[in-house]
Amino acid sequence: MQTVIGAVFKPITKIYYFDPATLLDLMPNDFVIVDTAKGRELVQIVQSPHSVAEGEIVGEMKQVVRRATPWDMLEQDTWRHKEAEALAVCRKMATEHALDMKVVRCEYNFDGGRLTVYFAADERIDFRALVRDLARVMQTRIEMRQIGVRDEAKILDGVGKCGRQLCCTSWLREFAPVSIRMAKNQQLPLNPDEISGVCGRLLCCLSYEDPVYKEANKKMPKLGAEVTTPQGLGRVRHLHPLKESVTVYLQNNVMAEFSVDELITGKKGSGCGTCGGCTVKRRASAEEDNERVRAERQAEAEEATEPAESGTQRRNRNRGRARRRGGNQGE
C-alpha cells in the first residue's frame, strides 16, 4: 500500500495520483505545486491523503513540491485573463497560414511559461511554421494539442437533449466507451439524430443504465419466440425489460401483455428463436431452387457453344433432361 493524494489540473477532469511526501494534512480544494513531465504545475486536490494498492498506480508517481502560495494563485489568475487574447491571436495566425484547423482554447500554465493550444482537425496538420510564429509573438513555449469532438464539446460546454448541462462538463471526469449495442439493449430507435449528442457521437448516458438492461434482458424471451400464456399459445411481439413483461400476439389475433413469470417458453432448438423455424426452412428451400436454376442455365450455355447436332441426338438429350427433372420433383 502507498499513500497518495488525488488531484486535477482543471475542474471536472481526470484524477491523477501524487506522492504527498510530508504534507499529510492536505484537504480537498487545497492547491499545491507538483512535479510533472512538463515541469511544475499547480493542481487542486480532490482526494485527501489515502492508501492505494501498488497495482492502481500506473507509471512513475510524481511528488508534491509545496503548498501553493497566494502569489501563485494571483499569478495564475493573471495569466487566465490573458487566454482570451491569446486565443484570438492563435485563430488569426492559423487563418493566415491557411491551416484547416479549429482552434478551440488556449491555456497558460500557472506561471505563463507554456501556452497550450487545443485545436480540432479532420486530419493531421503540419503546424511547425505556426508554432514558430506563435512563439515569436507570444514570447513563451507553445504546445499544440489536437483533440477529438468529445473533448471539444467538453471544453466548449453546451446543453444536451435532456435540457441540462452536458454531463462531460458538469460532472463526468472521463469518457466511457459507448456502443450501438447499448442502444439496442434499451430498444431505442437506431436513428443517429436520436441517439447522438451535441458532439455527434453516441450519447454518453447510454452507458449509465446499460448494466440494468443487460441483467433484465437475460430474463426475457427472444423477440418472436413462441410462448404459452394463461390465454393460450402466442408469439412475443414486444419486450418491456424494466417492467419484466412482454406483449404477446395470441392465436385468436389478440395482443395481450403478460408478466415473464406467467410465460412458458417453447423447447430449445425447436426453431431459430426469432420466427419459430419457418424462415430457416424457406431460406433453405429457396437456396436449393436457385442452385437448380443456375445448373440449368449453365447447361444451356454449354449447349449453345457446341456444334450442331442431329435430330436424334437432340431428342435423346431432351428425354434425359426430362427424366432428371422428374427425379428432382419426386425428391
Categorize the overall geometry. Answer: elongated
CATH superfamily of the largest domain: K homology (KH) domain
Measured as a percent range, the helix fraction is: 25-40%
- What is the alpha-carbon Rg in Å? 34 Å
Give the C-level CATH assignment of the largest domain. Answer: Alpha Beta
Count of the domains? 4
Number of strands: 13
Task: List the total number of helices.
Answer: 10
User: At the third CATH level, what is the topology name of the largest domain?
Assistant: GMP Synthetase, Chain A, domain 3
Binned strand content: 15-25%
Termini gap: 75 Å
Low-confidence stretches: 267-285
Largest β sheet strand count, sense and barrel closure: 5 strands, antiparallel
The computed structural class is alpha+beta
* Average pLDDT: 84
Secondary-structure element pattern, one letter each: EEEEEHHEEHEHHHHHEEEEEHH
CATH architectural label of the largest domain:
2-Layer Sandwich
Strand order of the largest sheet: 2-1-4-3-5
Describe the structure using short key phrases:
331 residues; alpha+beta; GMP Synthetase, Chain A, domain 3; 5-stranded antiparallel β-sheet; 13 strands; 34% helix; 24% strand
Could you please describe the fold and organization of this structure?
The protein is 34% helix and 24% strand. The chain has 331 residues and is α+β, with helices and mostly antiparallel strands. It has 4 domains: 2-68, no CATH class; 78-147, K homology (KH) domain (GMP Synthetase, Chain A, domain 3), CATH 3.30.300.20; 154-210, no CATH class; 226-265. Strands 2-1-4-3-5 form a 5-stranded antiparallel sheet, with no helix packed on it. A 5-stranded antiparallel sheet has the order 12-11-10-9-13, with no helix packed on it. A hairpin with a 5-residue loop joins strand 6 (102-108) and strand 7. Helix 2 packs across helix 3. The chain is elongated, with a radius of gyration of 34 Å.
